[in-house]
Amino acid sequence: MLPNMTIGINKQGIESLAIFGGTPLFESPKPTSNLVRPDPENFFRYLECDLARIDGAMREELERRLAAMHDVEHCITVNSGFWALALLFDALSLPGRKEIIMPSLTYRRMADIVAWVNRVPHFCDIDLQTLANSAKTVQPCLTRDTALIIGVHPVGGHCDIDGLTTLAREQGIPLIFDSVESVHEMHRGKRIGTFGDAELFSLGASKLVNGFEGGYITTNNPKLAAELRRKREGRSDGLSLTVPLPDIHAAMALAGLDDLASQLQRNLGRFNHYQQELADLTGLRLVKQNPSTEPSYKNIVIEVLDTWPYTRDQTLELLNAEGILARAYYAPPITHKPMSYEHIVGALPNTDRVAKRFISLPCGHLVSLEDITLIVDYLRHLKYHAKAILAGMTISCMSRLTFGESLYPTTHG
Amino acid sequence: MDNPGQQNQPKPEVVRSYFRGILQRQYYTESGPLVRRLEAEICQLLDVNHVICISTPAVAWLMLLDAVELGPGRLLLPATASNPMKEALRWIDCPHQLYDISAEHGYRLHRTDAEACMDDGVSALLAINPWGGACDLTGLSALAAEQRIPLLIDSSEAFGCHLDGRPVGSHGLAEVFSFESGNLINGAGSACICTQDETLADRLRSMRSSGGVVRQVPVRKTVNGRMSEAQAAYALIGLECIDQLIDRNKLQHDQYHKRLSSLPKLHFLSTKGVNLSNYQQLVIALDSKRIRKILLAQLQGSGCAVTSPAWDSSNEATGSLKGIRELSANGLQLPLGSGVTLEGIDAICEVIADHLEARN
Q1: Residue B55 and residue A240: Cβ atoms within 8 Å?
Q2: ipTM value of the model?
Q3: pTM of the model
Q4: How many cross-chain Cβ pairs, A to B, lie less than 8 Å apart?
Q5: Mind listing the pLDDT tens digit for each residue in A214-232?
Q6: Angle of helix A247-258 relative to helix B229-240, nearest 10 degrees?
Q7: Cα–Cα distance, A352 to A348 (Å, whole number)
Q8: Which of A248, A254, A368 to mutate to test the interface with B (most CBs of B within 10 A)?
Q9: How far is A367 from chain B (nearest CA, A)?
């Protein structure tokens, strides 16, 4: 008889697991998206205030607030992070050069954006400690055709800001940071948002500040800011597209900013609770964050260690079946998917390793401390009943294959 | 000065009701329930098989031009091309040629004008349904079919219009509607693409985002073209009162007509080519360029949002295009929409009448 390690969950025997037909642990799925909801009355106040009567005024107010938050001169909002990146790539890429250096373990549409602006993605590896690209991983990718370097902050922590800044300066190549996951953080006493030539943030519903959909760019370069505004309004000589942030999205983001301090406290509470609950569970490592960077603790990332009895993908399958919508950390890498356009890929050993080992666990507005207790209890349950569960998964898999083969002619008979 | 167009703002209490629902469901984007409902309602209203809601008109055009997978050759682009259409073209590596409009056809695109530029090197034909009316849809559709090339139409100014007993929305390979605030339906800057072609619809949905895909199909590149639940709420509110909006537009249109129709050397251009109009714009042409110039300056000087109906045609390579030059010099788009009163219309008409009658 195994010790009772799963007090919080009602799972007796492996047949009670949802993957084998049992009732899922969560009736309402628990996502990894932030989906933070502002105070409705505060949102309505913005929607009905004087700013709402002037086209673009809400957007300008949001830009002013965001610029102040990041302690940066200029903030340019766009209707999504996707188009913000596209406009930024086109504005900053060195003329006559094609290659944009980026990691493969990142936003899954990043390479498509590069292709839209008629440049070529050149994929670099990542650092195993930060899970992000660095001067050391970018350096081997530099060529005479390098037009731009993208430093991408990982989910938790930062990429090599100092190294990339030095490298870009020495090489005379523009540098931007994708800081979508590092909105409210610090580096060496300065706010994220002030580094490189520009930084990119998202106002998507899954992000720290929920603007339904949206994105913004911060920069201290007035010429770049002016060009980005022209591009956003379809008035630039280069590629431009009318993609303004709708004022109702700006109103939502403003209400979210009002709630930000409180949200950061709630996020910290969730992180601490995961940390406490996971402390005695070996085989899974919670990715820690550096308090000196004032992290937002929005995301919860764990590493699946060699001592954990399941593979990363088996763990995800078992979690997802129970309504725990954990996700593979940025996997598969972009380079593992077909691309219909020109791209450059070298050896990416660290990317391939990380792509198999990390999991983003449920977090954000729809996840309570009680949910976290249940999720970790379930993980504990998985660990202590691993032998039986793995055997069941093998049988189930073989059974599916067998049924799949025998059912096919029947249904078409 | 810009003509702000319709500016149909939803009532605060209705907005609150919709947004309470969104905040309660906590479903904010990715083809949420309101976007799905909007797509279904537009399908029904426009009697079209597939509606794909998109974040902005420019993104909709960019997606459409990529998704149709144009063959080699050039696009035939109307001289009156909308800004989203022109912006999207710059992202697509494809040459284009402008085709003109003519006074003979009321400055609406016509088969004759497109045919003058047509040859085997044309890969697609683009068109516009202008001013609460329609272009020569029958002729242009036939021409595109004969050439075996796609016809793509910007129908932003014709939402709710009917032609030969059918709503505008199912002509050509696809039609794009803008829901920017200047148009009849205010969808907070959003748009939609309508098509009867299932393959195209699948491609567009697969390109748009991870949500709302009926059948995943390979696409060359994806975008973020997601319409948010907030944008969908605005558009649905507009659809709820579409009949009242059209009635109001018609009332204003009739008032202009009553005051101006007897004036000499003045022609109404809007609402033509359809059996039922949405009356969202009022466009006239004057025979006298001189008087038109004076009127434009005087009305704009008094704060009236009167503009040229020919967009920014002066910036286009329109040197040899006589029709668009004429429309730029003779046309006037008069204010019509939520910011306009019948008294205001009377005042505008009085200024116009003073000049035209004085000339006689």
Answers
A1: no
A2: 0.96
A3: 0.95
A4: 104
A5: 999 999 999 999 999 999 9
A6: 130
A7: 6
A8: A248
A9: 13
